[in-house]
Amino acid sequence: xxxxxxxxxxxxxxxxxxxxxxxxxxxxxxxxxxxxxxxxxxxxxxxxxxxxxxxxxxxxxxxxxxxxxxxxxxxxxxxxxxxxxxxxxxxxxxxxxxxxxxxxxxxxxxxxxxxxxxxxxxxxxxxxxxxxxxxxxxxxxxxxxxxxxxxxxxxxxxxxxxxxxxxxxxxxxxxxxxxxxxxxxxxxxxxxxxxxxxxxxxxxxxxxxxxxxxxxxxxxx
Amino acid sequence: xxxxxxxxxxxxxxxxxxxxxxxxxxxxxxxxxxxxxxxxxxxxxxxxxxxxxxxxxxxxxxxxxxxxxxxxxxxxxxxxxxxxxxxxxxxxxxxxxxxxxxxxxxxxxxxxxxxxxxxxxxxxxxxxxxxxxxxxxxxxxxxxxxxxxxxxxxxxxxxxxxxxxxxxxxxxxxxxxxxxxxxxxxxxxxxxxxxxxxxxxxxxxxxxxxxxxxxxxxxxx
Lengths: 221, 221
Fold this sequence. Notes:
Two copies of one chain form a homodimer.
Chain A: E1 7-10, E2 30-35, E3 52-58, E4 69-70, E5 81-82, E6 95-106, E7 111-115, E8 124-130, H1 133-136, H2 144-148, E9 155-157, H3 160-166, H4 170-181, E10 196-200, E11 203-210, E12 213-220
Parallel strand pairs in A: 9-12
Antiparallel strand pairs in A: 1-2, 1-8, 2-7, 3-6, 3-8, 4-5, 6-7, 10-11, 11-12
């Protein structure tokens, strides 16, 4: 089946590094679903009554199908499980599934303002559906190795000297704290002397991680 | 993007008539997700630890894109809303999204036994993902016109004379009662003299509806 983008995602996150692994993990990160050219804006009529929507989107940065088994980060990269038992981006059809919070819908402009996405800037979106709790919400569903391997967010330290010079808006600091607490480092890396850089909007945030504490070393525009 | 079926659905429901409008509405209806030829069965390894999965599937019976606005059945067919504010099958990319309960996983045979699907027999499936409550479950999300327009199931009457002759298994009766209580009739039809027929496995169930009571008139093999 041939599917075409119905919309594209605008995100403050221009690259995969730093983008959350699942929707909702960084609930303050804003984004926009913008209808693709040629889509009639009235496709969004009535959506403003819903608190949440589903996005079915494409892992556009990945090439190739990957293998039948993958190593989920939640298992520390040590155990291989079948790709359909994971949300891995390397799957037979590279489709992603995320629910995001609706902030507002601008039908005339064909834009949905949302919060909490795990989509990189520019991601193609293939479908938008309303979130319907009676069909979609199952809070008590057991979730295999996801349940058995919890994780704790990192403590994020932004020294006064760094934040003072950066002059960020309060909402950007909140979003950055959420993103950094998710530990954007690649698996297996645990070198406290190594410095990493995360891009957010036009900002570059540099940081180090020692133990469970992440310290921001600089914020540049 | 070109996507290919990774699996096909086996359902006791051979046609759209009688198939639930959403997943979970008929929780006792069984079904099987069978991997497509060429898929390595180990893609299912580890899935047995999850209570629920997502299926992303194709509305294979529908042709054409439909229009930007549709009349959801929940609004009695009277009001048109944007297609992305509905779960209508007539959408720009004909993708369906359903979560179903996992009963068991037969990795060797490449089969997932499930309950509660809203998929017709033979439906192509494009992705299978584990259900992860922390990302997917939002029980309190407001759902616009779906919240405002509740519906009540029909009362289903199967006269003793009819059920005695049919010699159905208990589980089939339970599933049929659920399916019939959802009122399979097309919108706008309310003719108590009209008889309808629902196919389930090799059974044909005939019924009439008067007011809020559905009465089964015959069950044939």
